[in-house]
Design a protein that fits this description.
Belongs to the TonB-dependent receptor family. It is a multi-pass membrane protein. By secondary structure, the protein is mainly beta. It has one domain: TonB-dependent receptor, beta-barrel domain (Maltoporin, Chain A, Beta Barrel). The protein has 5 helices and 44 strands. A hairpin with a 7-residue loop joins strand 13 and strand 14. The longest helix is centred in the N-terminal third of the chain and has 9 residues.
Length: 770
């Protein structure tokens, strides 16, 4: 059925799924939930009983994280965690990770740049979290655009993430929980058609194999254009088989493999209306917003631009239950991601847009392969020391990442042959079509050039060793303390061999960083009643040079190799409540994070850890059922991100000796950090077989640079959904995205352009369940 519903399981099935660490959304009725909590000895909180099957369309709130590192239920975890379940992903019509995360306020998407790859580029609470994506708790390295066809749910953990994941940002991380084999038999499939040549087919088949074994396979084919963006679009396909052994016994083994590849014409976005504050052209000063042209204006070249990706991941997951709540789990994974593209960035760095009404078709290119081998061992269990109850997790992790990165050269090059630069006073054939008119550019211009791999190719090796321990100490049913510590040894090297280009020899480059760092988290939890918690927490995070493993903006270089990790700390005060017979989860939190040793330019012109950043904010969230027929999923986030000390800048005239002065951008707002963001998705069962739903996403203005003179306006977008159950095996779902065809920009962070969000689209999907 296409609306959110609960499923009844036998006790054996529930036990099997729980030991696989897949969250169970249990519909719980608390007896006298508002009664005072016992505070003496071993007296218990009010009992929680399972009432059986809930109403057909009732959304059961998640009880626990799928991660072994969470040692308490989500209700009692002193941290902001948003779980996006498979039902919400399906209902909203999401087909990618970025689509699904649109339902989580406080997350913005960054735009690609020359040093920043095309792909999932997340900012959480204002901090770059590009490398903080995990699959079943293990870091997913390598730039890519992730699909949802093999996803069970998505967990967004906000705040410092280093205690959980090691090197990380201060904003948080995203953990993708994948589909695994179950002791059940089912056949699920969907076929979707829609506007903009949308075609999508998925299948999810699970079969028991006798005894305690089962196999499952998820399949996907997708082909579509981007609504409102002309020729932009492409196709992709994927397969994700898993097989499990001993699924109801003490020793469970899951073998899984994931393959996804895509081919597309990547989007170019629209350039900013470049501010010009000095010189003869100051009268042409732009306002810093994206240029005002039709939504389908595309500055790329169909004869040049492409993007091909491929991802392969194999995992062996073994878990043994010793009894009495003690378990040992080992996960081994090997993955490889490839990305190959030529992508036009509409560059405005020379002021072409406001001066000449032209755009330079800058060619950003990338040929990259990332290989990752990782192993994680975790011991989890329960224990007592006197009257204190412990729920603990401890483990060790090892990983090795290798990224080989290169780019393309073109002959003739992509400069304007008339000016020998990227300045474009004119456009058209005489510029080799490297310069396009601002209005009505021709995507099929006969651009001709020879493409070869550049000899300037880099290899980055990153090795990590880590040990961690977490514990939730229950002093009384009313008072808990969550503590955690992680130690990391991080070693990364960059090597670029000597090469000769156009008769000029460039020396070899070697950079190396070796950091050891520890991170902590602690949270005191007070429970006014069994269905609630109030917490105060503290956490830290470390971001060493080369944090991105060579595949993003935080790259290792000679200039930063000797620097210590950037250190962040976060304080958070929050509360969580499960109300309406524990069918609706409500949360609220205020927080402040600071980074006192940000990497900036020091007074002597070198890069040093002397800057300061801070973010303070507030958020609220709601998940679950208001009535048997009415479900909600949404939240609101307010962020005030400031660059308190941006270091120094060179104020000398071109060609003159450097003169370093305090940055004029001190006190400016973080790029990619909206002050207000909110999302809401809600459904209502108007009949037993008819459900309607809708959602909105709203965000205030977002700056694209630290100067705060280029920005994307705020927006509000609306979506709608209707589903109809034909019979117990077949249902239909209609989605209309961007209902009002709002023109808005959903990706910033490059000072040159903003990403254009898709226009209005409609899809009709037939879902089959057997």
């Amino acid at each position: 059925m296409s609306y959110i519903k609960s499923r009844k399981h036998t006790p054996a099935t529930l036990a099997a799924i729980a030991t696989l660490a897949l969250p169970l959304a249990l519909h719980a009725e608390t007896k006298d939930a508002a009664a005072p909590v016992a505070t003496q000895g071993d007296q218990k909180m009010p009992e929680v009983t399972v009432t059986g099957r809930a109403a057909n369309n009732e959304f059961q709130i998640p009880q626990r994280s799928a991660s072994d590192k969470f040692t308490a239920p989500l209700l009692d975890t002193p941290k902001s965690v948003t779980v996006v379940p498979a039902e919400v992903i399906a209902q909203t019509g999401a087909t990618s990770l970025t689509d699904a995360l649109r339902t989580v306020p406080g997350i913005t998407m960054g735009a690609a740049e020359g040093g920043n790859p095309v792909g999932d580029n997340l900012f959480i609470r204002g901090y770059n979290a590009q490398t903080d994506t995990y699959i079943d708790g293990i870091r997913d390295s390598g730039s890519q655009s992730r699909e949802v066809f093999a996803i069970e749910q998505i967990e967004v953990v906000k705040g410092p993430n280093s205690a959980y994941g090691g090197r990380a940002s201060a904003g948080g991380g995203v953990n993708i929980v994948t589909k695994t084999a179950k002791l059940d038999n089912f056949y699920n499939a969907s076929v979707g058609l829609g506007t903009d040549q949308y075609r999508r087919v998925t299948a999810d088949v699970n079969r028991t194999l006798g005894g305690d074994a089962a196999a499952r396979v998820a399949l996907m084919y997708h082909d579509a254009n981007v609504p409102g963006r002309g020729p932009v679009g492409g196709d992709r396909w994927g397969i994700a088989p898993t097989i499990g052994f001993g699924l109801s016994g003490p020793t469970k083994v899951n073998l899984s493999y994931y393959h996804m590849q895509s081919s597309e014409l990547p989007d170019t976005g629209l350039p900013f209306n470049n501010p010009i504050t000095t010189g003869a052209d100051v009268a042409k000063n732009g306002n810093g917003t994206p240029i005002d042209v039709p939504r389908d204006t595309f500055y790329g070249l169909t004869s040049r631009d492409f993007r091909d990706t491929k991802t392969d991941i194999g995992t062996v997951d073994v878990k043994h239950d010793f009894g009495n709540g003690l378990s040992l789990r080992n996960v081994t994974r090997y993955g490889k991601t490839n990305q190959d593209y030529v992508w036009t960035q509409p560059d405005d760095s020379k002021g072409n847009v406001v001066r000449y009404s032209t755009v330079w078709r800058r060619a950003n290119t990338r040929v990259v392969e990332t290989k990752t081998a990782a192993n994680s061992t975790a011991l989890t269990g329960e224990a007592r020391t006197g009257t204190i109850k412990h729920n603990f997790a401890a483990g060790i992790e090892f990983s090795r990442e290798q990224t080989d990165r290169g780019s393309y050269l073109f002959s003739p090059d992509t400069n304007n042959p008339l000016t020998k630069t990227s300045t474009c006073p004119t456009s058209g054939a005489t510029t080799n079509y490297n310069c396009a008119p601002l209005l009505n550019p021709n995507v099929d211009d006969p651009w001709v050039s020879t493409r070869t791999l550049s000899p300037a190719r880099s290899s980055i090796h990153t090795n990590t060793r880590a040990a961690y321990a977490f514990d939730t100490l229950e002093f009384t049913p009313q008072w808990l303390l969550n503590v955690g510590v992680r130690w990391d040894d991080f070693h990364s090297t960059l090597d670029t061999p000597q090469y000769t280009l156009d008769g000029k020899t460039t020396a070899a480059v070697h950079a190396e960083t070796n950091s050891t760092f520890a991170n902590y988290q602690a949270g005191l939890v007070y429970k006014p009643a069994a269905n609630s918690s109030v917490y105060l927490s503290y956490g830290t995070s470390s971001t060493p040079p080369g944090n991105d493993g060579g595949d993003g903006l935080d790259a290792l270089s000679i200039a930063v190799q000797a620097l210590a990790p950037q250190e962040s700390k976060n304080f958070e005060l929050g509360t969580k409540w499960e109300v309406l017979a524990r069918r609706l989860s409500l949360s609220a939190a205020i927080f402040k994070s600071t980074m006192d040793n940000a990497r900036v330019t020091a007074p002597d012109g070198t890069t040093q850890n002397v800057g300061k950043k801070s973010v303070r904010g507030f958020e609220v969230g709601a998940t679950g059922s208001i009535t048997d027929a009415w479900q909600v999923f949404g939240g609101y986030t307010w962020l005030d991100g400031r660059v308190d000390d941006n270091g120094y800048i060179n104020t000398a005239a071109s060609g003159q000796p450097a003169v370093w002065a305090p940055s004029p951008y001190n006190g400016n707002v973080f790029p990619t950090t909206p002050k207000h963001s909110a999302s809401l998705w809600t459904t209502y069962a108007v009949l037993s077989n008819l459900t309607i739903g809708g959602g909105l996403n709203t965000m205030s203005k977002v700056y694209a640079n630290i100067n705060n003179n280029k920005w994307a306006p705020g927006y509000t977008r609306f979506d709608a959904m209707a589903s109809y159950v034909v019979n117990k095996h077949v249902s239909l779902q209609l989605n209309v995205q961007n209902l009002t065809d709002k023109l808005y920009f959903d990706k910033v962070s490059s000072p040159h352009y903003a990403g254009v969000a898709p226009g209005r689209s409609a899809t009709l999907t037939a879902n089959f369940k057997y």
